Amino acid sequence: MATDVQMVAAGTRSPTPAGEARPRRSVRLRSAAAHFGPFGWTVAGLVLASAVWSLVVASGRFPRQLFPSVPEILAAGRTLWTEGLLVDDIGASLGRAALGFTIGALIGITIAVLTATTAAGRHLLQPVLRVFAPIPTIGLVPLAILWFGLGENSKTLVIALGVFVPVWINSHSGLASTPVDYLKAARCLGAGRWQTLRKVVLPEAAPDIASGLRVGAAMAFVLIVVAEMTGTTAGIGYRIYQAQLFSQADRLIFCLIILGIVGALCDLAVHSVTSPFTRWAQEER
Amino acid sequence: MAIETHDLVLQFPGSQEPTLKNISITIPEGSFAVLVGASGSGKSTLLHCLAGLLTPTSGTVTDNGEVVTAPSPRRGVAFQRDVLFPWMTVADNIDFALTARRLAKPERRAKIRELLDVVGLRQEVAGQRPTELSGGMRQRVSIARVLAGEPTVMLMDEPFAALDALTRLRMQDLLIDLWTRLNRTIVFVTHDIDEAIRLGDTVNVLRDGQVVDHITNPLSRPRPADALADQHGYSEFRKTLHHQLGIDHALH
Description:
A: MetI-like fold; flat; B: 6-stranded mixed β-sheet
């Protein structure tokens, strides 16, 4: 008895059922969180963002026309869907982004191989590209229109240039930093230049190339909005621009959300395509 | 026929004095030579010159009478770090050397099986990545990859330095076994005196970039690790190596 009193006096938690309930609940919460999964967390995040937005709208501090409610945004989306515009817009934007991304990524990786592994590339191309890289791609839009007009070619060029820069910078960084020991080992084993490039330098740089591709894919979606503001009648960027012209904030916000979702899905696609080539780096950590 | 150096001097750009100073050594074909020395004595640099990875400032390295100017699979190198390519499986790592020799695919497959067997690894290891293997297994794969190049000389730069004591002894046993069976010339760099005594037929002692002594191992083979100290001549040989390495000066 005296011992019990001392325990309570010392602040020691007694083993009562009430005392046990707290850790059990936290364990249950943790286990529920673990079972939630990435999809569950994404949905929870979106619900939270909607709730915050609804609170802002409900506060009445901002004009309703510029800050539409969540149901109004969804209704604008439904209208786009029923009018058949949404699928066409997504298709048009995806097509342009994919073409520009493919061209920019291929050129970026090829040029990176040249600048990282050949003396001519290092001496001739690298200084030019270092000057070119910091120029904002948006600044090249007028030039692209001047050269190729308002058609598809100027849009593809703008996206390809925007993708090229991060892909080249990341790929060059990875390709130029192959550990010397790997190169020495390859030379001692009798490997030629081509075998060393294909089997050592490129796979070793794969994580950096993959990072460049992911940044490039994100850049493609940034530039699609800019590229589609002129000279087209379909595309998410065009729809955003139209919504702005006609003060349709609900439609504009819905299109931005769609752009975000499509961009995130494309990022997932790039990640899943590149992950077999980069898995070794994660295993090594 | 042998691998030889004649008045080899190597000075790195910007350094005050040469790392290697007038080194002339001969390593006869089929012998097991050890280069022993403290850190910074130039033993790894000498090995890199023998491999053709470093170009001497003056003097020459000859392999079988030919001047060495570049690396060749004829002189296989096992590095201190195993340098296996982590993005490849064990089989692909070995295949890399076989592809460089332009062997046909079926021949390469058979050779991979044979080499895994030679270095004492199970066939199931072929599909694993280096990250899944222990340090000892990785070094076995590294040796298999060197052997895939069909070298006549194996240059080994402290390959067991990072391994635990037990694995190290096992790897020494494997190396002695390979040397006996395959009749290759081995040049082995170490800073461990007992490892030098156990493995080498001849021991070249390096100090401050110079070969200060070239000693024939007085101990007869086999030299089991657990009975090494009991062998006749062990203490004298060890004392000589200590003296040549300058360890007695350092201790007093």
